[in-house]
Design goal:
The complex is a heterodimer of chains A (596) and B (350).
Chain A (H helix, E strand, L loop, with lengths): L8 H7 L1 H5 L6 H9 L3 H12 L2 H7 L4 H4 L2 H4 L6 H11 L18 E5 L3 H10 L5 E5 L8 H4 L8 H12 L4 E3 L7 H5 L5 E4 L5 E2 L14 E3 H9 L9 E5 L3 H12 L4 E5 L11 H9 L4 E2 L2 E9 L2 E14 L5 E5 L5 E4 L2 E4 L3 E2 L33 E3 L2 H4 L4 H19 L11 E6 L1 E3 L2 E2 L18 H6 L11 H9 L6 E5 L9 H5 L5 E4 L4 H7 L11 E3 L8 E5 L8 H4 L6 E9 L12
Parallel strand pairs in A: 1-2, 1-4, 2-3, 4-16, 6-14, 7-8, 7-14, 8-9
Antiparallel strand pairs in A: 5-15, 10-11, 11-12, 11-13, 17-24, 18-19, 20-24, 21-23, 22-23
Helix pairs in contact in A: 3-4, 3-8, 3-19, 4-8, 5-8, 9-17, 13-14, 14-15
Chain B lengths: L36 H15 L7 E5 L3 H4 L9 E4 L5 H11 L4 E7 H5 L3 H9 L4 E7 L2 E2 L5 E2 L22 H8 L3 E6 L3 H13 L3 E7 L15 H7 E3 L1 E6 L14 E5 L5 E6 L9 H13 L3 E8 L6 H5 L11 H4 L3 H11 L1
Parallel strand pairs in B: 1-2, 1-3, 3-4, 4-8, 7-8, 9-13
Antiparallel strand pairs in B: 5-6, 7-13, 10-12, 11-12
Classes of the chains: A alpha/beta (596), B alpha/beta (350).
């Protein structure tokens, strides 16, 4: 193999699995260390810069970082990254002093943002301090988009959401709330320099089954129903409730129903339990609130008698798989199952909908009626119109919307300056030795053995009685510290200097997880099998040195490196060093573009 | 400050026949200098014990005094150990071996412990053919007392403070062959591919097995002009053969080029496979082995690999015809066979 080019920041970035997996590439280990040091404000600001909604995400993020966490490959469970973020948000001091302070010197450019969800708010935050005049449109009376309308208050208290939305609105954003944009053409005619569409995927899928029309009064589309609850148009529900669907919206629906008077709430899904789309922890929370999840039941009809909804019938199925692994739901035979219900909530997916975008504006749509959007710049085929969040490619999650917002903001900034939006700013990168002395590092290199700490929850009696009472209590300071200490500090990189190495094998011998080998060079596929323990995880890179004196090379399998620093401690010549790698995605106005 | 080894290990470590992963054979984290050759040898011992499927409780480690003699703390924590007096490890090992012949005896010593204060004990334990593996971690200096020349330092070798050694070195491998060791090898701490099979073959050898391992002292004897530095050894190393040790011949068959390979079959059916590199050398012939060592020395080469092996070796128990059971398993009737037996013996002597 060719020697690894560690001057390419993407190499070490990939070693920080959590950060790499995060759509916004939040510097996770950096803020976790700050939490361990009780520097909650600083930890919050690292998050705020990167993901804009630390308090919201610390409660509701889909956490792509956690399955990626290296600790999950050596220990039973990954670090509770998401809930640590909440520790920073809960305990932060005055963060506002560290944020850009409005008013800003205006640059004369006007930008319209349609939809006040996380994508648009991110664009607003990134562009307002640069002097752009931001106009934010939303049909609701408050900002936040689906973070407000879909995520129930018992998971995300309104006060947390309001605070973080207001941090942005306070940057001098011109809000146009309670204003539904009926026509993009009209908006474009208002002479904006760019328009960003972050209108989400607002249309809940319906189920056209027999009885749907007759029972309509008690059959609700999940996301609409959740919005009605959030804005207090809906205040109660029947005693017996069926929730259809197996995603996180279904989990939110069933748990909300329990709080609005539902006593027998059942979730009914077509697929097997294990294949449900909902996050495992959300399924657990539903189970904890006495909500059975009945799997392998395909809805057949709504049963309505004398104009009153009585329940639903289902066909029992079993999942069979073709050789290619494709799933087929096959009826098991027997009579259909009848389940009683006073209300049915349909949470079987949501879609984009752009009835308000005229098709003659130069914005091309594909055969699924989705706009064609550039995956790097987020520009549509009309160079003034940008898409991001769920509006771009369908429903994802908050953190993805934020990541889109940052990139769209960069594009808008570049195009408004008359620069090419295809030349993206480089990330901000830093790499600094952590050596303080013999056996002394500037980070806690010892690897603790603690198991993941569970987040305490409020008493069910209290939370079920009040839909606004937050269920999760969050870690306290001490548990937060202990959980933070579980982090392996994967951003403290093992940096190898070939010409210092005397090939004493000390690093190879001491490495607890057998990551380091000295061997003859070969192609990657051969090299992987020649190591002390074969490197079978192909998603993890090999760090290969140039040829040593004996013509061998040092090969480090990054897979299960604990970043404990023992290789560097046992190295007599400091050929190994532990260096902190900081990688921050450039935002609009930072990075190279602003220096031109 | 942290100097702790994490408990996590690679999740894909293979288990040996006993169901142990290699970490079961580890010891405490080393407190020797970073980069010490001794740590590499410890790692080689761990690897060899793991590959040999050794029950840790069936092995006893012995050592004397010195940096080398600290290492039994750093491997095979689950085995028996005895850290004895300076240079007196062979006596303690002899006592233990005579008391319980069922254990594997594994001695670790250094050049001071063996070639200076312990030289007398060393040659006598060889003469007696005690069934043990004896490894010398040879760095040519007294590392524990800041690097004075030891008895194995080569004439003309320069130490860290610039002093040139005036005296003839003691060549431990020649001495071992000379005094009757039945397995003699030489190796380098920086060459585990060679060292590990040698340790395995030595542990399996039914007599006295000696391995002299050049192990650079990274702190006091890794300077220019030293003949025991990493660089010098790498430049002057010559191997007799590549070695592989096969506990059971059925497991493996390797084709070597004609005339260059030699298999030495031991009494228990195990095989040392040698892919010969040195010419005019016969590992079964003491004379030839001596010549090979002397020839290499005259060319300023360090000859490594297996030097000499006698597959028909007999150990001390065989020579003095001791009981074939460990003493702790002898019962009262074994030890006091009664008056009938006494009468029979007396009758024999009439």
């Amino acid at each position: 193999m060719e020697p690894t080019n560690i001057n390419n920041p993407e190499y070490f970035h990939k070693v920080v699995d959590c950060q790499h997996a995060c759509p916004a590439h939040t510097p996770v280990p950096e803020y976790i260390r700050l939490i361990a040091e009780e520097k909650y404000t600083e930890a919050y600001m690292i998050n705020w810069d990167s993901n804009v909604f630390p308090g919201v995400l610390g409660r509701t993020c889909d956490r792509p970082c956690e399955p990626a966490c290296r600790r999950g490959r050596v220990d039973e469970e990954p670090v509770a990254i998401c809930r640590l973020k909440r520790v920073a948000a809960d305990n932060k001091g005055d963060v506002k002093q560290f944020m850009p302070q409005a008013p800003f010197k205006q640059n004369g450019k006007k930008i319209a943002l349609i939809g006040a969800g996380p994508a648009s708010l991110t664009v607003a935050r990134d562009l307002a301090p640069l002097g752009y005049e931001i106009h934010l449109y939303d049909q609701q009376k408050l900002g936040g988009g689906f973070m407000r309308s879909q995520i129930p208050s018992f998971r995300l208290p309104e006060s947390v959401l309001n605070e973080e939305v207001n941090f942005i609105l306070d940057l001098g954003i011109h809000t146009h709330f309670n204003e539904y944009v009926k026509s993009l053409k009209e908006t474009l005619d208002k002479d904006y320099d760019a328009v960003f569409i972050g209108s989400g995927a607002p249309k809940g899928r319906d189920l056209e089954l027999p009885g749907r029309k007759e029972g309509a009064a008690h059959i609700h589309i999940g996301i609409n129903w959740l919005a009605n609850v959030a804005f207090e148009h809906t205040k109660n529900v029947g005693k017996k409730v069926i929730v259809l669907g197996g995603g996180n919206t279904a989990m939110d629906c069933c748990r909300t129903a329990r709080r609005l008077g539902g006593e027998e709430v059942k979730v009914i899904v077509r697929s097997p339990f294990a294949e449900m789309k909902a996050s495992p922890w959300e399924k657990e929370d539903a189970a904890h609130e006495d909500i059975p999840i009945i799997d392998n039941h395909v809805p057949k009809s709504f049963v309505v008698e004398n104009g009153v909804l009585k329940g639903m019938t289902f066909e029992k199925v079993t999942a069979e798989y073709t050789k290619e692994g494709k799933r087929k739901l096959v009826p098991v035979g027997g009579a259909d199952v009848f389940i009683e219900a006073d209300d049915v909530l349909i949470a079987v997916g949501q879609e984009n909908s752009f009835p308000w975008i005229e098709r003659d504006l130069g914005i091309e749509f594909d055969k699924w009626n989705m706009p064609i959007v550039n995956e790097v710049t987020f520009v549509s085929t009309n160079t003034k119109v940008f898409f991001g969040g769920d509006a771009a490619w369908g429903p994802k999650n908050v953190i993805t919307a934020v990541a889109h917002g940052h990139q769209a903001a960069i594009s808008i900034d570049l195009t408004c300056r008359g620069e090419s939006m295809n030349v993206r700013p480089s990330p901000f990168v830093n790499l600094v030795s952590q050596k303080m002395g013999i056996h002394e590092w500037a980070y806690d290199s010892a690897v603790v053995n603690d198991q993941r700490y569970t987040v305490p929850q409020a008493d069910k009696k209290i939370t079920l009685a009040n839909r606004k009472k937050e269920v999760e209590l969050g870690y306290d300071h001490i548990t937060g510290f202990k959980e933070a200490e579980r982090c392996l500090n994967c951003d403290i990189q093992t940096v190898f200097t070939t010409d210092k190495c005397i090939e004493c094998d000390a690093c190879m011998d001491v490495c607890p997880t057998a990551c380091i080998s000295f061997t003859g060079n070969a192609s990657e596929i051969d090299l992987r099998s020649m190591l002390k323990v074969p490197a079978t995880n192909l998603s993890q890179d090999l760090y290969v040195s140039s040829a040593l004196k004996t013509k061998r090379v040092m090969v480090k399998d990054e897979n299960v490196c604990l970043h404990c620093g023992l290789c560097a401690e046992r190295c007599p010549t400091a050929a190994w060093d532990m260096q902190k790698f900081f990688y921050n995605v450039s935002k609009a106005g930072s990075g190279c573009a602003s220096h031109k | 400050m942290t100097y702790l080894r994490p408990k996590f290990r690679h999740p894909e470590l293979q288990k040996n026949k006993l169901g142990y992963t290699v970490d079961y054979y580890e010891g405490a984290l080393s407190t020797l200098c970073a980069g010490c050759g001794h740590d590499s040898i410890s790692a080689g011992i761990i690897q060899a014990a793991y590959e040999m499927n050794i029950q840790p409780h069936k092995l006893a480690k012995f050592s004397g005094i010195g940096c080398s003699s600290k290492t039994p703390a750093y491997f095979l924590s689950n085995s028996h150990g005895f850290n004895s007096v300076h240079g007196r490890m062979p006596s303690v090992a002899t006592g233990a071996n005579l008391a319980n012949r069922d254990l594997i005896y594994f001695g670790v010593s250094g050049d001071g412990d063996t070639a200076s204060i312990g030289l007398g004990q060393f040659v006598h334990v060889i003469r007696r053919g005690l069934n043990m593996t004896y490894i010398v971690m040879n760095n040519g200096c007294y590392g524990l007392t800041k690097g004075q020349d030891s008895a194995t330092a080569d004439q003309g070798s320069k130490n860290k403070s610039g002093n040139v050694n005036l005296f003839e070195p003691i060549d431990l491998a020649s001495l071992a062959i000379e005094t009757g060791a039945t397995f003699v090898a030489q190796s380098f701490s920086g060459d585990k591919a060679q060292l590990v099979p040698l340790i395995k073959a030595a542990m399996n050898h039914p007599g006295f097995a000696f391995i002299n391992v050049i192990s650079p002292c990274v702190t006091f004897n890794n300077n220019m002009g030293s003949t025991k530095s990493y660089d010098y050894v790498r430049e002057h190393i010559e191997a007799t053969a590549t070695v592989d040790f096969v506990p059971d011949m059925k497991e493996i068959s390797v084709e070597y080029g004609k005339g260059t390979h030699k298999n030495v079959t031991m009494h228990d059916g195990s095989v040392i496979q040698l892919h010969k590199l040195a010419e005019e050398w016969d590992p079964l012939n003491r004379q030839s082995a001596m010549n090979a060592v002397l020839n290499a020395k005259s060319k300023n080469e360090i000859l490594t690999g297996l030097l000499y092996v006698n597959p028909d070796a007999r150990d001390l128990h065989h020579m003095i015809q001791t009981t074939d059971k460990p003493l702790n398993s002898l019962t009262k009737s074994d030890l006091c066979p009664g008056s009938e037996m006494l009468n029979a013996i007396n009758a024999d002597l009439r």
